[in-house]
Every structure is written in structure tokens, then in C-alpha cells.
Specification:
Residues 110-142 form the Zinc finger Sec23/Sec24-type domain. This protein is α+β, with helices and mostly antiparallel strands. It has three domains: 16-56 and 64-179 and 446-555, Immunoglobulin-like; 197-440, von Willebrand factor, type A domain (Rossmann fold), CATH 3.40.50; 570-830, Severin. Strand 32 (675-679) and strand 33 (684-688) form a beta hairpin. The chain is globular.
């Protein structure tokens, strides 16, 4: 496929369905006013338009919110619960829909089942003559007068009976203009109040780092909205919180001890004194600039970078107390609300590990006291995580120094608060772009996701920035706001919400959750239904929004039909998220996680491609061709930055896994299987398999690896200055287009063939040059266009390596790699 980096997709027309079951297109259809006449129950019409709401393969690849791992599911428990091939969905509830494809907003309460509280959808049997509908989850016969025909015989259109995703605006309040929190601090319509931000700056940096940090900090604060309330503090041996009411050019601060957790007496002047420590940028920009200008490097006697005194723990406690006292609005979906849950964001600019006060490690790693201090630091961080998360404060840690910052110890803090750890090369351009996005993100736990499935199908696990909620807490946030009636009388039945409910720690559009399903019994029904409902709010007393996403999957008793229906990229994402979670846990660890990948592939081959009875034994066991893309994704996971040797320090690999665990479907797919593009001139790019045979001197390439991007310019292209400049500009522009909306924000690194930096790209590509010619032809078809001499020269140009190709790796496992051009299928499906 050819991709043009500067082209915007056309706006698709909205379908308007009529009583005859045919669809006409109109870009101006208004569902709130369109009236439709029916001569038969609407459920009959739904059979004609069900393709618009079915959960088929088209939905799996093009749906911005929900991507199922298969378009058909087995009806047998034994097949569905094969752990090596997960069954589930990637849910990215805040994903930005394509232009013109955003869900319809219905300004009313949804119709919900009186028994199980499921939302009505196009998969329910609806009788408009009697105003009744059958729940597709529990089969209960519901009555709703809103579905009954009007005296004129007409019924106002109900888009929830045609569309698979709709938004309900519930309990509308006067003046509630923002109804769906996105990933920014501002509301979706730009009228909401930005999230308060406190900058915590490490004072133990070297001189060149301070120069870069000061320049970047000025760019960041000047790039934030003028209404953003900011505070600024520095930390070293103690914590200094700066007064932003001081005259321009003067920097004054309240000092808090760094050897222990701050006491109320330490914070009294800060929280109740006459100074202003959190103020809108419109009134304090000059003071903030003065504070930034006053930053100084560590003194020469401070010692090595990693050993300089940094009281990060007390600094975080101080910042959280400041936000608690003068932060933003109470957490929007927190029933307690009140003064104790103000909300805000702490953005830490760090250059080394914490070495002073609680949470710090004062001894070297070789010391006999190191294990004791490390355990004490972990215990403190766990307690601090609970405290800060309860205040609806999010913590982002941006490291740009030369020393390791102890990312694995800080991981629980950012995970609990919905923040992120970023390990950057310096405090330059990448630091600025990521800090600006981080400062604009919404803070606090303001979204809830409910997961519901047909009887016999259970939600077994959710992986991502989410936490399970108690039944009472979930009921308080997702209960219907109106009394459900049957005709004119109250229902005399007991309602019980059968959904599993999770609180989302982040509302970032690029983040999502992986949902795993398991069967509790064999399924006699012809279809399985799943429903995801995202609950958000713009503030206390304001409207709630429920985004309902319902999908239907046919069941099959054929194992081969199930394999053909598996969407390999999504199934691979689910499996990879489970592996990354195992690698992060102390009970499993990275080494054991690698072995589990290999065992997973072997188990898939054994279960879904068993040897035929009476067949002669072979050296290599067959692997299902339908799952070739799944196997290749596991190969990339094994050698990629999360588990392989691409990143040198375990902190870097742990951070990469943390990013992957919270990433949405699109970003996670690129992090798992790198996407490779060849520049074809102007703004045209062609996607090719991620193999080293693409590294030809006559081409320029862009490799998208999710949180990192690399542009490679071939020797012949670089020889012509004009062509090289055009290629460089096109590669950077196209990379920025692909990265739009992602967080972390990847930077495009550009280098020429043969340079030292070229190893970043070469190491991420499949070493296909090690395979036989016919295997190269199958897995990288463009190589067949080369002349024999040119092809031989290309394969001989690579340095010797022991890194196996995908084919060799499968052989090491005793498996025969699928003979289809699986690489081509994989990058087309995942792209």
C-alpha cells in the first residue's frame, strides 16, 4: 500500500436508514429530529442493516475503540480457553475517531435492561408496536414507552439501534459545556479549566544540563495556556517552593527539610501564609521566568552525579500537599469529592536517583546495607503512591540526565497515579515536546469502564492503566439516573448489574486496556455479545457521559473456521501484554517471560496443528498458517526493546514495558512489530516488511517503533545534496504525521547509511539475509526485483550476526515457519 504523509482522509458521509432497510448517505442528517415511519417491527429492519453494527473482521481492523481478537469465537470452552491464544479485545475508549466518524451524542438517558442493566443496542429484538425490547445479554422482556410509536404512527429515530457506538449525555446541568474528558488538561471544546501543574526540578545537574533545562523550561511555560495554574519547586538536600507573587526578577522560596517527610509545621507557611505558590500563568509568568533564570548547577564538590543529595520523596509530598490545598476541581467521578481530592499534576524534571530522605538510597549497590535501604525505599514509594493517588494527583517523571534514576523503584508511583516515566537523552527538544503534552493531560481518576459479556463468557483479566472497583463504588458511578418503568408501573424485579467495572487512571487518547475473556461453559447460542461502557464527567454536578460500545461475534464449532477468523495483530497484542506484565512482576521476571513466549508458540502448534493420525514423523512440526502473523509478532517481542538487547539497561527495558502495558491498540501495535516505510519521492511512502533486505543504498526508509522513530538515508541518496535534503524533510514530516496524538511523543532520529547511529534501525529489522533465497523471496518480495549481482552484494554487505531470523527461530523451536508471505500479511493487517 502507498501512504501519503500530508493527505487527510476524506470525511465519510453518515448513513441514514429508512424503513425499507436501504441506506442513503447524507452529511447533514440529524438523528435528534429525523422521523421514520415503520410498517413492521424495527427488529426486522435491523437484520438488513446489521452489517453496520456487527463485530466482524472489518470492525476488528477499522474500529477506533474496540478491536476483537477474532471475528468468530468457538462455542466450546476447551478451544476458547487455550491460554496460548488469548481471546479478548483491545479497548481504546478515548481514541480519536476519524473525521466525521465520532459517535452520535444522544442527550437523554439510555434504555437499560431492568434485570442486568445492559444498554439497549442494535442487536436486541425490538418491537416498536408495543414499545418492548428483549435484552441480548439476559433475554429479559423490557418495556420502554420511548420506543412505542407516536399517535401519528411515527417514531423518532434511535441511532443506538443502528450504530455500534453511541454517547449518552446524562443528567445535563446548566452550563455544562464539556462532556468527555480527553487526554488534555483542557476540555474537548477548549473551555474547561486546565489541570494545575507543579514543576519539581532537580538542582543537582551539571552546568550543560542546567543550560539546556532552563531554555526548555522557558519554552514549556510559555507554551502552556495562560489560565494554567502552575507552581515551581526545586529539590536537592532540601525542598524549595518558590513564591510566585514576588516582583519580577526576584526569586524567593519557602524551604522544607529533605531528611524526613514534611510535618504540618513545615508546611504551615507554605499552605496558609501570605505567599502565592500556585497561580495562573497570566499573573505569574514573570515570576516563573525569574525562578527558572535563577537555576544554578551543582557545586563542583557535590561529587558524582548518582551520589548527589536528592530528596525526591519529601519533594513529592510537598507538591501533593500544595495541590491538595490549592489545586483544581474535586475528582469528577469520586463520590467523596470535597476538599480532599483536588486533583493536579506533578511534573518531575530529574537527573539522578533519590539519595536523601524517605525513598532515597544513600549507599552504593555493593554495600551490605543496600538491600535493606532498597526495600525501605520500595515500601515508602508504595505508601506514597496510595496517598498521592487518593488526592487525584498524577505524577510524571521526565529524566534527562546522565545517571540512572531508579525507574523500577518509581514505577509503582506513576502506575498508581496514571502518570509516566520517560528516560530521555537530554533536556532538549524531546523533553520539551513530551513535557508540554504531559502538562496538558487531565489528572485524576475521572473515568470508569464497565465490561459485560454474554452468559458463559467471563471477563478474566484487564491489563492497562485500570484498577478494579468494589461493587458498591461501581454501582454509585454507573447506576441509572432515572427510575426504570414498565409502562406506567414500577418493575417488581430485582436489578443486578452483571458488568465488571474498572476505574481508569488515565484519559489519554493514546492509552487503552487489554480485556481477556474466558468461558465458564460451552455456548449453545449462535452469537456472543460484548458491551463496553465508558463513563466520564466534566465535573461535580455536571453531566455524565456514557459511551456505549456493543459488539456481536458469531460462534462456530469448527476449529479451522475459528483460526481463519483470528485477527493475528490483536491476538498478538493481548499475548504480548500478558508477557510484558509477567516480565514486570518479581514472581516471573524477564528471563522466565522469554521462556514462556517460546512455550506459547509450541503450545499453539500442538493444539491447533496436531499431527495427522498415521502421518510419518517429520523433523519440524507444522505451525498453523492462519496464525503466522501471531508467531512473527512473538518473534519481534522476544528480540525487541522490552525483552531483547536493544536497550542496555534494565531500567530502560522496564520503562518500555510500562509504556506498552498502557498503550492503546495503534501505538502498542507499532511497539510490538515495527512498521517500515520506503520513501518514493515527494510525500509518497510505501510500506514494506521490516527486514534488513530493505536497507538498499538507493532508498530512504522510516522505521516506526511506537515510542521511537528512525530515518535511514541510503548512501546513493545521501550523495546528492538536493535529494538528501528532500528525503530528510519528507521522512521527518511523515514521521510526525504518524506520531500525531501519541504519548510519549516519539522523536525522528535521522542518520545516513554506514553511520554509527544506523545500528538503531539495523538491530530492529529481521536479519533476513541469513535465510535461503526462496525464503527471502517469500518474506520480502521486493528483493526479487534486484539483479543477481546486486542481490548478492546486498546480502554480503551485512555484518556477521548470531541473531536468528524468524525462520531460523522457528526451527530452533522445532517448528516449520509458515510458507505463506506472512510478513506481508502481518504489516498490512497491523498497519
Amino acid at each position: 500500500p502507498t501512504v501519503h504523509g500530508t493527505m487527510e482522509p476524506p470525511t465519510p458521509p453518515r448513513a441514514q436508514y429508512h424503513a425499507g432497510g436501504e441506506a442513503s448517505t447524507s452529511t447533514s442528517a440529524d438523528y435528534s429530529t429525523v422521523a421514520v415511519s415503520f410498517e413492521e417491527p424495527f427488529s426486522a429492519i435491523l437484520h438488513d442493516v446489521s452489517s453496520g453494527v456487527s463485530g466482524g473482521m472489518e470492525s476488528a481492523t477499522g474500529d477506533p475503540y474496540v478491536r476483537m481478537s477474532a471475528s468468530k469465537v468457538p462455542n466450546q470452552k476447551a478451544v476458547a480457553n487455550v491460554g496460548s491464544l488469548p481471546l479478548g479485545a483491545m479497548v481504546t475508549p478515548f481514541a480519536a475517531a476519524a473525521s466525521g466518524a465520532a459517535p452520535v451524542v444522544l442527550r437523554r438517558d439510555p434504555a437499560r435492561c431492568a434485570r442486568c442493566l445492559a444498554f439497549i443496542s442494535g442487536f436486541c429484538e425490538v418491537d416498536t408496536r408495543g414499545g418492548r425490547w428483549l435484552c441480548c445479554f439476559c433475554g429479559f422482556d423490557n418495556a420502554d414507552t420511548r420506543l412505542a410509536p407516536e399517535p401519528s404512527g411515527e417514531l423518532r429515530a434511535h441511532p443506538e439501534l443502528v450504530l455500534s457506538s453511541v454517547d449518552y449525555l446524562i443528567e445535563t446541568s446548566v452550563g455544562a459545556t464539556s462532556y468527555l474528558g480527553g487526554g488534555g488538561g483542557e476540555s474537548e471544546d477548549g473551555k474547561g479549566e486546565p489541570t494545575p501543574v507543579v514543576f519539581l526540578v532537580d538542582e543537582c545537574l551539571d552546568a550543560d544540563e542546567v543550560v539546556a533545562l532552563k531554555h526548555s523550561m522557558l519554552e514549556i511555560v510559555r507554551g502552556l495556556p495562560a489560565t494554567t495554574r502552575v507552581g515551581i519547586a526545586t529539590y536537592a538536600a532540601s525542598v524549595a517552593v518558590y513564591d510566585l507573587s514576588a516582583a519580577a526578577g526576584v526569586a524567593s522560596a519557602e524551604v522544607v527539610p529533605g531528611t524526613r517527610s514534611p510535618m504540618p509545621s513545615d508546611l504551615h507557611s507554605l499552605l496558609y501564609g501570605a505567599g502565592t505558590f500556585l497561580a495562573p500563568l497570566s499573573s505569574c509568568l514573570a515570576a516563573v521566568e525569574a525562578v527558572i533564570g535563577a537555576l544554578r548547577p551543582a557545586v563542583s564538590a557535590a561529587g558524582p552525579v548518582h551520589g548527589r543529595p536528592r530528596c525526591l520523596g519529601p519533594a513529592l509530598e510537598t507538591a501533593a500537599a500544595l495541590l491538595k490545598r490549592g489545586g483544581g476541581v474535586p475528582s469528577t467521578l469520586d463520590p467523596s469529592g470535597g476538599e480532599e481530592a483536588k486533583g493536579g499534576r506533578v511534573l518531575v524534571c530529574i537527573g539522578g536517583p533519590a539519595t536523601r530522605g524517605p525513598g532515597g538510597i544513600t549507599v552504593e549497590e555493593e554495600s551490605e546495607l543496600y538491600d535493606f535501604e532498597e526495600q525501605a525505599a520500595k515500601t515508602y514509594i508504595d505508601e506514597l503512591s496510595t496517598t498521592v493517588a487518593a488526592l487525584a494527583v498524577s505524577v510524571d517523571i521526565l529524566a534527562g540526565g546522565r545517571a540512572a534514576v531508579g525507574a523500577t523503584r518509581l514505577a509503582p508511583l506513576v502506575a498508581a497515579t496514571g502518570g509516566i516515566v520517560l528516560l530521555l537523552e537530554d533536556f532538549g527538544a524531546s523533553f520539551v515536546s513530551n513535557a508540554l503534552v504531559a502538562a496538558r493531560r487531565c489528572a485524576g481518576r475521572s473515568a470508569v469502564l464497565s465490561v459485560r459479556a454474554s452468559p458463559g463468557v467471563a471477563c478474566a483479566r484487564v491489563i492497562g492503566a485500570a484498577e478494579a472497583m468494589t461493587t458498591d463504588a461501581a454501582a454509585a458511578l454507573t447506576a441509572p439516573s432515572l427510575l426504570m418503568l414498565a409502562g406506567d408501573r414500577e418493575l417488581n424485579i430485582s436489578s443486578e448489574d452483571t458488568a465488571d467495572v474498572f476505574r481508569l487512571k488515565s484519559t489519554d487518547p493514546s492509552q487503552g486496556v487489554a480485556v481477556f475473556f474466558e468461558y465458564t461453559e460451552d455456548l449453545p447460542a449462535n452469537f456472543v455479545y460484548v458491551q463496553f461502557v465508558l463513563w466520564t464527567s466534566s465535573g461535580p454536578g455536571a453531566a455524565r457521559v456514557a459511551r456505549c460500545m456493543t459488539r456481536r461475534l458469531p460462534t462456530t464449532g469448527s476449529q479451522r473456521a475459528y483460526l481463519r477468523a483470528v485477527h493475528a495483530p490483536t491476538a498478538a497484542l493481548l499475548a504480548a501484554k500478558k508477557v510484558a506484565l509477567d516480565a514486570q512482576s518479581s514472581a516471573v521476571g524477564p528471563a522466565e517471560a522469554v521462556q514462556r513466549i517460546e512455550a506459547r508458540i509450541a503450545d499453539v502448534a500442538e493444539v491447533f496443528s496436531p499431527p495427522l493420525d498415521g502421518a510419518e514423523p517429520t523433523l519440524l512440526h507444522d505451525f498453523p498458517e492462519e496464525l503466522a502473523g501471531f508467531a512473527e509478532a512473538m518473534y519481534h517481542l522476544l528480540r525487541g526493546p522490552m525483552l531483547g538487547r536493544l536497550l542496555g539497561h534494565e531500567d530502560e527495558r522496564a520503562v518500555a514495558r510500562a509504556h506498552f502495558l498502557t498503550a492503546g491498540a495503534d501505538t502498542a501495535a507499532c511497539m510490538l512489530v515495527p512498521q517500515l516505510y520506503v520513501w518514493r519521492g515527494l510525500d509518497s511512502f510505501e510500506q514494506v516488511p521490516p527486514a534488513d533486505l530493505a536497507l538498499q543504498a538507493t532508498d530512504a526508509l522510516l522505521l516506526d517503533h511506537g515510542t521511537a522513530m528512525f530515518a535511514w538515508i541510503g548512501r546513493d541518496v545521501a550523495a546528492d545534496n538536493t535529494t538528501a535534503a528532500a528525503a530528510r524533510a519528507s521522512l521527518v514530516t511523515f514521521g510526525e504525521t504518524l506520531a500525531r496524538g501519541r504519548f510519549p511523543v516519539p522523536q525522528v532520529k535521522v542518520f545516513n547509511q554506514g553511520s554509527s547511529a544506523a545500528r538503531y534501525m539495523v538491530s530492529r529489522l529481521v536479519p533476513l539475509h541469513r535465510d535461503a533465497l526462496h525464503e527471502q523471496d517469500a518474506r520480502y518480495p521486493p528483493v526479487q526485483l534486484l539483479a543477481p549481482d546486486a542481490r548478492k552484494a546486498l546480502t554480503e554487505s551485512f555484518l556477521p550476526t548470531e541473531e536468528p531470523s524468524f525462520v531460523l527461530w522457528m526451527r530452533e523451536l522445532g517448528l516449520a515457519a509458515p510458507t505463506l508471505d506472512a510478513s506481508v500479511k502481518l504489516f498490512m493487517e497491523s498497519g
